[in-house]
Amino acid sequence: MHMASEEGSKLWGGRFSGKVDPEMDKFNASIGFDKRMWKEDIIGSQAYVKAIEKVGLVDNEEMKEILSGLEKVKEEWSKGEFAIHPSDEDVHTANERRLKEIIGSVGGKLHTGRSRNDQAQVDARLWLKNEIKTLHSLLVDLIKAFITRAKVEIDVLMPGYTHMQRAQPIRWSHWLLSYSWALKRDADRLDELRKRVDVNPLGSGAIAGNPFNVDRQFLAKELNFSSVTANSMDAVGDRDYIIEFLFWASLLSTHLSRWAEDLILYSTKEFGFVSLSDAYSTGSSLMPQKKNADSLELIRGKAGRIFGRFAGMQMTLKGIPSSYNKDLQEDKEPLFDVCDTLQGLLKVSTGTLITLLLHKDNMVAALSPDMLATDLAYYLARKGVPFREAHSLSGTAVQAAENKSCPLNMLTVEDLKEISPLFEADVTYVWDYEHSVEQYVAEGGTAKSSVQDQINKLQEWLNCYRESDQPSL
């Protein structure tokens, strides 16, 4: 009697007679990480057996037997009782092996016309769709936290910085909202990306398609996909949606890294604008006085890790020829790692922001008259002086204050009149910080009315985001 070799029992066995090197077996296997898609793999198989029953590849009783067996496999996974065998190369192999153990040889009919090439893709797309829903919700929670603080602390003033130099007075809420808008773009991009994930690849086979004319639209409906892939070669070789997701994640984490860097600076004693909650800080093993912004530093650090995953996967894809190649198995680990990292990053960002303690007096104390030099130029511009000339005259005033070793606002009206006769007694209003921020009433500015308008627009966007209105994932 001919005995099947160990290789013959694998899904790809039969033509192999020699043994695979154990190190190659380990190198080839993906069960260690793709097992987390066990549920999606079973859901895809349940839909597929219904599709092949419709074209007569299994009869109704066989379909019911396979569906029942798959439910038992699912139950074992959900209870943590599923036993992975050394021969289980991947989650697809493991589930099919266990199905045949439960219902016998009829389980072997399930894979008719299907390849692990399209099977792995349907699993990944189903898994990522659910992950996108979770990440979108966490991102919206973070944006809500930004808007809530902006509402409550709308009257707080602080220095605004360019080139890390004090530039002009702004509202703290304006700074908060600058990140809210960036994060809103991230949320919008994720929703756009979701549409390109929401495509059914099942029924593409290994490369050429499905030879039994399975109804791919039926499969899409069963699996809650919005459409089907148009070309079988493209379907099994496409990882655009994963690359796009990894890019999206790297851009989101870049925004959060910049926000974290701002707060790291603002929390130092040199700035003293904010203090982190003890829940999001750590101490030093050597210096008892230290309170380290570890939450923010980790947010900043993990942005590099996420970008590395994106760049690595992009490089993996660069030289692969068309259709499926085993290199594409490298897509799962960066995808899983980035999703896990992002969940933690978003939760910690929200917690850090909500519990942040603001030192308003220190912010106001950091405002200095030299930051109003532009306002001095605006004063002259409102009196008809061309701005370039007004800018130069304001610079002359700054130099005059330096020569007198006094702050800019301590120049007398007479001092200023020597620079330009257009300076009058009302120039003293220029030295009021509240007056300074309130002149920026144009849309998107830091005046209170403009900031309130930003809050209203973001709140309107949030109000449109309700669980019942979310796109089906």
**How many helical stretches?**
18
Mean pLDDT value? 92
Main sheet record: 2 strands, antiparallel
**Helical proportion?**
55-70%
In what order do the strands lie side by side in the largest sheet?
1-2
Radius of gyration from CA coordinates = 31 Å
Q: In terms of per-residue confidence, which ranges show pLDDT below 50 for 5 or more consecutive residues?
A: 1-8
- Write down the overall geometry: elongated
Strand content: under 5%
- Please tally the β strands and state the result: 6
Oligomer: single chain
Instruction: Report how far the terminal alpha carbons are from each other.
Output: 51 Å
Structural class: mainly alpha
Which H/E pattern describes the elements?
HHHHHHEEHEHEHHEHHEHHHHHH
Plain-language structure description:
Helix 6 (116-152) runs antiparallel to helix 7 (172-197) and helix 10 runs parallel beside helix 12 (332-354). Strand 3, helix 8 and strand 4 (227-228) form a beta-alpha-beta unit. The strands form three sheets. Strands 1-2 form a two-stranded antiparallel ribbon. Strands 3-4 form a two-stranded parallel ribbon. It has helices spanning 22-28, 31-34, 38-54, 60-78, 91-103, 116-152, 172-197, 216-222, 232-237, 240-266, 294-318, 332-354, 360-365, 373-381, 387-403, 413-419, 433-438, 448-464; strands at 157-162, 165-171, 199-200, 227-228, 274-275, 357-358. The longest helix has 37 residues, at 116-152. The radius of gyration is 31 Å and the shape is elongated. Mean pLDDT is 92; it is low at 1-8. It has 473 residues and is mainly alpha-helical. 36% of the residues are buried.
